[in-house]
Design goal:
The chain is α/β, with parallel strands linked by helices. It has a single domain, classed as Rossmann fold, CATH 3.40.50. Strands 1-11-10-7-2-3 form a six-stranded parallel beta sheet, covered by helices on one side. A three-stranded antiparallel beta sheet has the order 4-9-8. It has a two-stranded antiparallel sheet with strand order 5-6. Strand 10, helix 7 and strand 11 form a beta-alpha-beta unit. The longest helix is centred in the N-terminal third of the chain and has 23 residues. The chain has eight helices and eleven strands. Bound molecules: 6-phosphogluconic acid.
Length: 269
C-alpha cells in the first residue's frame, strides 16, 4: 500500500470510447485469465462486486465465450455483499444470478454466496471460514507473502466516493489487517449492513480489475490514479496488488478529469 508521498503503482489503464467497447474488452480479459488459470491450476477463482459491473459482464454470456470458457472450472465468490435476503432487489447475489449465473453453466456447488439467514457478523465469519477451507485444499491459491487467499481475479467497481467492494473512505474497515472478510453496519451507501473482503485479501489477488464508468466516477478516478494527489486513504488508491496485476477499465466520461489533468490515460504501468 503506498503511503502518502510514496510513488503509487498505477497499474495498467485501459480507457474506452464507449461502454460497449469496455464490456467487450472486459469479457476478453476475463476469458483469457480463466483460460490461463485453468491451464495452470485446473480452476479459476473469481470474486465479483455489485453495482454496474454485472451488466458489463454480459458479453461473457454471449458467443464465443458462452461456448469457449470452461465454466465447470469456475469458482465464484463475492468481494462484497449487502446483508439482505438473496431474493431482495439489493442483493449482489440476486443481481449476479439474474444477469450472469443463470446464463452460463457454472456449477451451483461452485457458487459461494453469503449466508442471508444469520447476522452480518456471523455471515462474515462463515464466509471467511469457507474461504479458509478452500485455501487448505488449494482450490483458492495462497499468497506466499502473507498466507492470504490468492484469488485468480477480483473484480471491483469504483464508487463515486472512491470506495471499492464495501470499503468506504475513512471507514475503520479499511484498517482491518487480521481478518480476510469483515462486516460493516453503517455503510454510507444503502443498505447499511454489508460484508466485504479486506484490503490484504484484495491486494493478494493474482489479478485485480477496477472498473469505472460514467461521469460521476471521474473525480474518484482522478483521485485514485493521478500523480501528486494526497488521497492515500481513498480506498481505490489503496488497491495495490503486492504480487499481482492491477488493470483499470475506464470509459471516456470516467476518464475526463484524468484527461484534463494531462495524466497519461493510456496503459500506464
Ligand atoms: O455492493 C455494492 O454496493 C458494490 O459492490 C459497490 O462497491 C459498487 O460496486 C460500487 O458502489 C459502484 O456501484 P455503481 O456501479 O452502481 O456506481
Amino acid at each position: 500500500m503506498a503511503a502518502s508521498g510514496e510513488p503509487k503503482k498505477k497499474g495498467e489503464l485501459r480507457v474506452f470510447e464507449s461502454l460497449d467497447e469496455l464490456a467487450t474488452e472486459l469479457a476478453e480479459y476475463i476469458a483469457q485469465l480463466s483460460e490461463i488459470s485453468v491451464k495452470e491450476r485446473g480452476c479459476f477463482t473469481i470474486a465479483l462486486s455489485g453495482g454496474s459491473l454485472i451488466s458489463l459482464m454480459g458479453k461473457l454470456c454471449e458467443a464465443p465465450y458462452n461456448k469457449t470458457v470452461d465454466w465447470t472450472k469456475w469458482y465464484v465468490f463475492w468481494a462484497d455483499e449487502r446483508a439482505v435476503a438473496k431474493n431482495h432487489v439489493d442483493s449482489n447475489y440476486k443481481q449476479t444470478k439474474d444477469g450472469f449465473l443463470s446464463k452460463v453453466s457454472i456449477l451451483n456447488s461452485h457458487v459461494y454466496s453469503i449466508n442471508d439467514n444469520v447476522t452480518v457478523e456471523d455471515a462474515a465469519g462463515e464466509y471467511e471460514f469457507a474461504i479458509r477451507q478452500l485455501v487448505k485444499i488449494r482450490t483458492i491459491g495462497v499468497s506466499e507473502i502473507n498466507d492470504c487467499p490468492k484469488f485468480d481475479l477480483i473484480l471491483l467497481d469504483l464508487g463515486s466516493d472512491g470506495h471499492v467492494a464495501s470499503l468506504f473512505p475513512q471507514h475503520p474497515a479499511l484498517e482491518q489487517k487480521d481478518e480476510w472478510v469483515t462486516y460493516i453496519t453503517n455503510s454510507p451507501k444503502p443498505p447499511p449492513e454489508r460484508i466485504t473482503f479486506t484490503l490484504p485479501v484484495i491486494n493478494s489477488a493474482s489479478n485485480v480489475a477496477l472498473v469505472a464508468s460514467g461521469e460521476d466516477k471521474a473525480m474518484a478516478v482522478h483521485h485514485a490514479i493521478a500523480d501528486g494527489v494526497d488521497a492515500s486513504p481513498l480506498p481505490a488508491r489503496m488497491v495495490q496488488p503486492t504480487d499481482g496485476k492491477l488493470v483499470w477499465f475506464i470509459d471516456r466520461p470516467a476518464a475526463s478529469v484524468l484527461d484534463a489533468g494531462n495524466n497519461d490515460s493510456q496503459n500506464v504501468e
